[in-house]
């Protein structure tokens, strides 16, 4: 903008000078001792002749034209040259100065914007938990390599100041939510492991102090067991990481330990009285190694009852399973479904792909043995004889299918046995 203003001023100055020269050209001629001389000039080759009587160019034979020529002395030419050079230098100095001034102003504006945005990054995190706006500002300064590291230093500073506020017992759910959002944004970015590590460290600190504050609320409400459990979580999460937090949580645990154990014992005793031994076991399990003999004894007693009940349950299930399997087998045993004079039909379940039958028939009548399929349609004729007969035969069947064995005889008796079924 400044360059444009300087250019306009220079243009106006040149126009003013030219106009001034035009208005005072006669005075300038007199002052500069400029003499006018008429000459004949060739429009084709630019040759000039002082002889005004010439009509044709001696070089190219072109008709000459009369022109007025100004003769300026060498001294005057040098003065004019110096003036022109001076004007050019002045204009150049003005333009260069304007460029320098413009660059200086732009740099100052950039520095001002840089510092303002750095401070804004701090305020966005400190006062508003506005992570999205913070990211937008960093992106807008992507060409400035130092901006992002400085902005994140401001972010860490703002978070640390808010942590101090939490240490003093104040709740800050917005900070936890913002740290979660930052963790999600950087969890898949392998190039930002340092940022993610620092955020994770601060998230753990914020969450831990928030839980300590919450445990204080539990203690005020005489919920000692809940406070003890929450403090135990804080200790386990910060072990070998934040010794200060571990010490604070441990000291609070020691202060409420007796009250917490009393509530734990009372809760477990109620469950035992209700014969809810499994719940009592779960209630006592996390405290059995805390050197309280009552809790340990109650836990062992509840565990024994749980094991006894579990053993009884498994034994009952095993017996029920045995009975179920036996019932399945009994259902598949050979059953007589028809028993009339001279005719008997068995429903049989095949346990093999081969059905064999053996025995004898004594008498002088007709004796036949047929095998029917599960629809009681004819499948195979195993015996068809008259008079005494020794049976020893077999047939191919489908394992797992039901069949019907039909035995018929007149004037005689039979004695048969077979294999390939569950039997009777």
Task: Summarize the entry for a quick read.
With 424 residues, the protein is of the alpha+beta class. The protein has helices spanning 2-23, 25-31, 74-128, 131-140, 147-167, 173-186, 193-220, 224-238, 243-273, 277-285, 293-332; strands at 35-41, 48-49, 65-71, 335-340, 343-349, 354-363, 366-372, 378-386, 389-396, 402-409, 412-419.
Based on the model shown, name its key terms.
five-stranded antiparallel β-sheet; Jelly Rolls; three-stranded antiparallel β-sheet; 11 helices; alpha+beta
Question: What this model shows, in words?
Answer:
Among the domains are: 169-273, no CATH class; 333-419, Jelly Rolls (Sandwich). It is 59% helix and 19% strand. It has 11 helices and 11 strands. It has helices spanning 2-23, 25-31, 74-128, 131-140, 147-167, 173-186, 193-220, 224-238, 243-273, 277-285, 293-332; strands at 35-41, 48-49, 65-71, 335-340, 343-349, 354-363, 366-372, 378-386, 389-396, 402-409, 412-419. The strands form 3 sheets. A 5-stranded antiparallel sheet has the order 4-5-10-7-8, with no helix packed on it. Strands 2-1-3 form a 3-stranded antiparallel sheet, with no helix packed on it. Strands 9-6-11 form a 3-stranded antiparallel sheet, with no helix packed on it. Helix 6 (173-186) runs antiparallel to helix 7 (193-220). The chain is elongated.
């Amino acid at each position: 903008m400044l360059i444009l203003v300087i250019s306009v001023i220079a243009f106006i100055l040149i126009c003013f000078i030219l106009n001034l020269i035009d208005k005072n050209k006669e005075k300038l001629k007199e002052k500069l001792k400029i003499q006018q001389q008429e000459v004949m000039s060739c429009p084709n080759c630019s040759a000039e002749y002082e002889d005004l009587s010439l009509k044709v160019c001696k070089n190219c034979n072109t008709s000459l034209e009369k022109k007025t020529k100004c003769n300026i002395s060498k001294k005057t030419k040098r003065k004019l040259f110096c003036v022109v050079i001076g004007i050019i230098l002045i204009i150049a100095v003005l333009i260069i100065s304007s460029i320098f001034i413009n660059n200086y102003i732009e740099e100052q504006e950039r520095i001002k914007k840089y510092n303002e945005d750095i401070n804004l990054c701090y305020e966005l995190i400190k006062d508003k938990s506005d992570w999205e706006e913070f990211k937008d500002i960093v992106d807008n300064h992507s060409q400035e390599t130092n901006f992002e590291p400085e902005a994140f230093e401001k972010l860490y500073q703002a978070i640390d100041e808010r942590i101090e506020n939490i240490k003093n017992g104040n709740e800050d759910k917005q900070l936890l939510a913002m740290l979660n959002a930052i963790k999600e944004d950087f969890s898949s970015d392998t190039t930002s492991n340092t940022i993610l590590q620092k955020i994770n460290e601060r998230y753990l600190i914020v969450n831990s102090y928030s839980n300590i504050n919450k445990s204080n609320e539990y203690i005020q409400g005489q919920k000692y067991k809940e406070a003890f459990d929450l403090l135990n979580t804080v200790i386990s999460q910060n072990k070998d990481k934040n010794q200060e937090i571990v010490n604070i949580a441990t000291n609070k645990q020691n202060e409420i330990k007796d009250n917490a154990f009393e509530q734990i014992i009372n809760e477990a005793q109620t469950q035992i009285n209700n014969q809810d031994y499994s719940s009592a076991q779960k209630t006592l399990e996390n405290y059995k190694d805390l050197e309280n003999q009552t809790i340990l004894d109650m836990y062992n007693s509840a565990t024994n009852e749980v094991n006894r009940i579990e053993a009884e349950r498994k034994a009952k299930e095993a017996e029920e399973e045995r009975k179920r399997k036996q019932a399945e087998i009994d259902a598949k045993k050979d059953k007589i479904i028809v028993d009339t004079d001279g005719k008997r039909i068995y429903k049989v379940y095949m346990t093999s792909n081969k059905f064999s039958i053996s025995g004898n028939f004594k008498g002088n009548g007709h004796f036949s043995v047929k095998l029917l399929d599960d629809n009681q349609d004819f499948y195979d004729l195993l015996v068809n004889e008259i008079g005494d007969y020794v049976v020893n035969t077999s047939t191919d069947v489908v394992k797992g299918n039901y069949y019907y064995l039909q035995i018929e005889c007149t004037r005689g008796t039979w004695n048969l046995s077979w294999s390939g079924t569950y039997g009777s």
